Amino acid sequence: MKQFADLFIQLDQTTKTNTKVAELARYFAEAEDKDKLWTMALLSHRRPKRTVTTTLLREWAAEQAGIPLWLFEESYHVVGDLAESIALVLPDSTRKNNRSLSDWIDFIRHLKDQEEADKREAILEAWDRLDKTERFVFNKLITGGFRMGVSQKLMTRALSKYTGIEENILAHRMMGNWHPDETTFDDLILTEDPLDDISRPYPFFLAYALDDGPEDLGEVAEWQAEHKWDGIRGQLIVREGELFVWSRGEELVTTKYPEFEILTSTLPNGTVIDGEILPFKDGEPLPFQKLQKRIGRKKVGKKLLADVPVILMAYDLLEWEGRDIRDWPLLQRREKLEKLVAENPAGGVLQISEIVSSKNWEFLAAEREQAREKGSEGLMLKKRNSPYQSGRKKGSWWKWKVDPYTVDAVMIYAQSGHGRRANLFTDYTFAVWDGDKLVPFTKAYSGLTDAEFQEITRWVRRNTRERFGPVRSVNPELVFELAFEGINESSRHKSGIALRFPRMVRWRRDKPVSEINTLEDLKALVR
Fold first, then answer.
1. What's the number of domains the chain is made of?
2. Is residue 350 part of a domain?
3. Residue 272: which of 310, 329, 234, 309 has the closest Cα?
4. Cα–Cα distances in Å, from 338 out to 355, 360, 383?
5. CA distances (Å), 415 to each of 389, 422, 461, 483, in order?
6. CA–CA distance from 498 to each of 94, 274, 494 (Å)?
7. Structural contact between residues 199 and 242, judged by C-beta atoms closer than 8 angstroms
8. Which of 117, 143, 169 is at the close of a domain?
9. Same structural domain, 220 and 347
10. Which residues, including other chains, have CB under 8 Å from residue 501's CB and lie 6 or more apart?
11. 436 lies in which domain range?
12. 228 in active site
């Protein structure tokens, strides 16, 4: 555990990518194989499930620190992080700890079926064996809130430096439904044939946002344009007569989309298609909000299947006749994909993302402006000679999204942030006019500078009306311009609407509350 805690501190204290890679590579060279696996799992969002409630942890921490619970809660609101708050208030440890990271994770998992009294005794003993840094990491693990500030791409670079294996090969080996209990470091990373697992997907190729228009990209003829559909990015795999569907978040979602079962028999073995799981009915895409009704369900009933059917909108072909063809140019992969989709008798559940005619950049700009009418978020621009790469690479694929919707609204609630922003009010609730009343309709917490957050925090403290724990209601005076990607009707919200990806664009110091937008303005945007 000490090794892992030291790694955590080293990574937390630097923003330099090369330093992080070097520290991770050093850790992989020194740690036990089981600890290497669990570190890779944690960085790949494969965390142990929570086995003790945060309510109990707060009570036990306050009791062990000899302070009333209310004082701990107030301290927690100031610190902004529960794991750190507990680590800070506890007295110094009196015993030594020689357990490894994997040992402590097993300890946490074994708490699941224990009685509350036994859990309390085990947790107090654990805290007494760990120093402050180790406690902090342990608390992060047990609360399920572990974040290390390291992307999977960066971890792959470190593993490549340690093992000498190419990054793209390692990225592929770490995809799929692996778990530290079911494999070894040698089998997962050092095995030469990563295709032994027939369900294993390929790393997704991700595009960068195109902010300034496409004119600097060169000749339009060198690029393939298609709509950027608003669903869930996924890979559909058919190997050895079995079907697997993976989301971009590396979640196996085959059972959530029974519509695709027919493709098991209509697609040839050795086929991997990259595309969008898209809600689609009566020949057109449905709003993403409709798909959200299905995302959290383990089983989808007949009514929901009928109301929100899905298709796979195919973008690319990654494997053909069992052969990895990602190094083929896009133009060649596209030809195979078009033939595959055209010959598939799947009744429309597999469709191809049509290429948008591109006479010139001006023509594509006009097509982009009409994207929302077609249910898309804008255009994708892909170089015709580009291979299918791993992760986010600049140059070959660009997403040219439509400009976001904007609205002016007033802040009515403020809440303190987390981590380094725990002492600032950064999370705001906004309202618009509905007649002569202000109606809350969304929250936002990003888009402003640190200086602006500090200024607003001082204002909040002077203009608080009421307190509700960490939340404060404030005088409705500060107006902000908000941007968002989409809007839909919602029965769960008092306003009757829900925004997609809301964020603050600017603080409208020039605008009075009387001139902000109305709920009617927002409802007029609902498609």
1. 3
2. yes
3. 234
4. 11, 24, 17
5. 41, 10, 11, 20
6. 52, 29, 10
7. yes
8. 143
9. yes
10. 404, 484, 485, 486
11. 405-523
12. yes
Taking the CB of residue 148, how many other CB atoms lie within 10 A of it?
19
Q: Is 228:376 a contact under the CB 8 Å cutoff?
A: yes
Q: What is the pLDDT of residues 138-147, one digit of tens each?
A: 888 888 766 6
Residue linked to tokens 């032994």: 196
Sorted by sequence, the CB contacts under 8 Å of residue 355 that are 6+ apart come out as 224, 225, 226, 334
Is the domain of 447 the same as that of 432? yes
> Which residue type is seen at 87?
A
pLDDT (0 to 100) of residue 298? 65
Residue 76 contacts residue 85 (beta carbons within 8 Å): yes
Is 436 exposed, middle or buried (CB count within 10 Å of its CB: 0-12, 13-18, 19+)?
exposed
Of 171 and 326, the one with more pLDDT: 326
CA distance 337 to 316: 7
Per-residue pLDDT of 316-354, as tens digits, reads 999 999 999 999 999 999 999 999 999 998 879 999 999
Give the active site residue among 20, 119, 140, 228.
228
Judged against a pLDDT cut of 70, whether residue 193 lies above it is answered with no
